[in-house]
Design goal:
Bound molecules: adenosine-5'-triphosphate, magnesium ion
Protein name: Glutamyl-tRNA(Gln) amidotransferase subunit B, mitochondrial
Strand order of the largest sheet: 2-6-7-10-1-11-12-13-14
Shape: elongated
Number of strands: 16
Number of domains: 3
Function: Allows the formation of correctly charged Gln-tRNA(Gln) through the transamidation of misacylated Glu-tRNA(Gln) in the mitochondria. The reaction takes place in the presence of glutamine and ATP through an activated gamma-phospho-Glu-tRNA(Gln).
Family: Belongs to the GatB/GatE family. GatB subfamily.
Catalytic activity: L-glutamyl-tRNA(Gln) + L-glutamine + ATP + H2O = L-glutaminyl-tRNA(Gln) + L-glutamate + ADP + phosphate + H(+)
Strand content: 15-25%
Structural class: alpha+beta
EC number: 6.3.5.-
């Protein structure tokens, strides 16, 4: 009996470990003979209106200092915490999205440290009994699965800024007490690039479930990366934790530098000492902040003011049923609809807010736009219009997708007009440019009528007339084409398009001109 019991538990956990460690990690030419191992602690600000334990409103960096603070956030004696249910709900949504076990019972602890921007002298966190455990996040590479150790709810601190001119530090408590989710991965990442991919995948996931903006530059997502190296076939090495990284790019550089530093030490026969390190962007090097000996004694203790957090199964099930489509599901769906990987990635990158200036708000992104327009239409045709024509024109106009005023109704009708050959593709593109330039809310069919863009039966007879006129008007060019100079043909096509005011189809014009010019040869 004992033997069965002993192996049952470890087996179920080591299965996951097998999934990961049996995956073939190619030798990295940057560090032959070595493995680089990374585990990441992500602190994601919870996107709730109010803070984790007080009714103060959360804020962004644009607010004047100390305007979003109530007495609890400033640790006035006698104030008590009251758990914000919205933060719990968003934590549970994140946990479900990461395939975690949501714990029916979790609890809050005090983690003590003494910083001026932490007025109570402790942070309320979930050290001993976190909200969720044992999840997974799959990276795009087939068999790369990162295990999630746990998700815990905790408070953010305030912000201290040193003013060197006045030689004083100022404290802003706007952020103090804002809800955070600490998402801790197992040490399953095997390169700086994988670490980058993990953080990006997590950002996309948090945004899709609406639990965090996940913006590293603005501080709503912060990563501590733990790096160790070991010789192949040896067990994991000693980790160093690098703090305060504020972009995915710098995080990857920091991991690379740290890996080289540790390998150099070990190759010299020196040990790697477990410590917390910082990263200097200018010199691209990590530096020691504190080692194990000066590690603070956090004196963890259960928070006596907060009872355990008990969640019933119905509550968890209700949230499970209301989960939105997750990024990996969206991608698979788009591919199944016949989109190329590139087109799916373009739409999703805009959704994830990777486009500059786009805030990544779910539902206003390119995927939702595509979904609406492609209802009842050929998805491949629709995505072509979005990625090539619409995004192309927006880029020329230096506008982001968020600023796009071309409505889904307008694009849908425009595509129908072109597909049914009532207007030519050239007219369609011209209409798209016209609508964007004038910010027009008029429907394309109305505009096509006003601009006489509808293809009429007589247009095919006109086509020949237009071509003949142009050949007569540009005899030298016509001769050049007859002599085989096909580059000049474009000039003739352009002229016919101009004469036809875009009603002619460019391909048809090209064919007609070639026919006319070759018969006269
Ligand atoms: N050998 C290793 N190499 C790289 N990463 C490791 C290694 N061992 C553990 N890690 C990673 O270190 C992180 C430890 O985070 P955790 O929150 O559990 O503890 P901590 O860093 O000691 O505490 P704190 O939250 O106070 O920083 C995890 O992400 C884990 O995957
Ligand atoms: Mg941690
Ligand atoms: Mg840590």
């Amino acid at each position: 009996m004992l033997r069965v019991g002993q192996c049952l538990l470890p087996l179920s956990r080591s299965y996951c470990r097998c999934v990961h460690t049996t995956r073939l990690v190619k030798e990295d030419p940057r560090w032959p003979g070595w493995n680089v191992v990374v585990g990441i602690e992500v602190h994601a600000q919870i996107k709730s209106r109010q803070k984790l334990f007080s009714h103060a409103l959360t804020s962004d960096l644009s607010e004047p200092p100390n305007t979003h603070v109530v007495s609890f956030d400033a640790a006035f004696p006698g104030t008590l915490p009251r758990l914000n249910p919205k933060c719990v709900e968003l934590g549970v949504r994140t946990a479900i999205a990461l395939n975690c076990q949501v714990q029916r019972r979790s609890a809050f602890d005090r983690k003590h440290y003494f910083y001026p921007d932490l007025p109570s002298g402790y942070q309320i966190t979930q050290h001993y009994a976190p909200l969720a455990t044992d999840g997974t996040l799959r990276l795009s590479e087939e068999d790369a699965v990162v295990r999630i150790k746990q998700i815990q709810l905790e408070q953010d601190t305030g912000k201290t800024t040193f003013d060197p001119r006045r030689r004083i530090s100022t404290i802003d408590l706007n952020r103090a007490g804002t809800g955070l989710m600490e998402i801790v991965s197992e040490p399953d990442l095997r390169s700086p690039e994988e670490a980058g991919e993990y953080v990006r995948a997590l950002q996309a996931l948090l945004r899709s479930v609406g639990s965090s903006d996940g913006n590293m530059e603005q501080g709503s997502l912060r990563c501590d990366v733990n790096v160790s190296v070991n010789r192949q076939h040896e067990s994991l090495g000693t980790r160093c934790e690098i703090k305060n990284l504020n972009s995915v790019k710098f995080m990857m550089v920091a991991i690379t530098c740290e890996a080289f530093r540790q390998i150099e030490l070990l190759e010299k026969g020196l040990p790697v000492i477990q410590e917390t390190r910082g990263f200097d962007e200018a010199s691209a090097a990590t530096f020691s902040l504190r080692n194990k000996e000066d590690a603070p004694d956090y004196r963890y203790m259960p928070d006596p003011n907060l009872p355990p957090l008990l969640l019933d199964q119905t509550y968890i099930n209700t949230i499970r049923q209301s989960m939105p489509e997750l990024p990996q599901e969206t991608r698979s769906r788009l591919l199944a609809q016949g989109l190329s990987e590139r087109d799916a990635d373009v739409l999703m990158a805009i959704d994830m807010g990777r486009e500059v200036g786009y805030d990544g708000v779910l539902g206003h992104g390119a995927v939702a736009y595509f979904d609406t327009v492609s209802r009842g239409r050929d998805p491949k045709v629709v995505v072509n219009w979005i990625t090539h024509e619409l995004l192309g024109q927006l880029a020329l106009r230096k506008e982001t997708f968020k600023e796009n005023r071309f409505s889904t109704e307008q694009l849908g009708e425009l595509i129908d007009l072109v597909q049914s050959k009532r207007i030519t593709g050239t007219s369609g593109r011209m209409l798209l440019r016209h609508i964007l330039t004038h910010g027009s809310s008029e429907m394309p069919s109305k505009l096509a009528e006003k601009m006489s863009l509808f293809v009429s039966a007589s247009d095919s007879t006109s086509l020949e007339t237009w071509c003949k006129e142009v050949i007569e008007a540009l005899p030298e060019e016509a001769q050049a084409v007859r002599n085989g100079n096909m580059n000049v043909l474009n000039k003739l096509v352009g002229r016919v398009m101009k004469t036809s005011k875009g009603r002619a189809d460019a391909k048809a014009v090209r064919n007609a001109l070639q026919d006319l010019l070759s018969t006269k040869m």
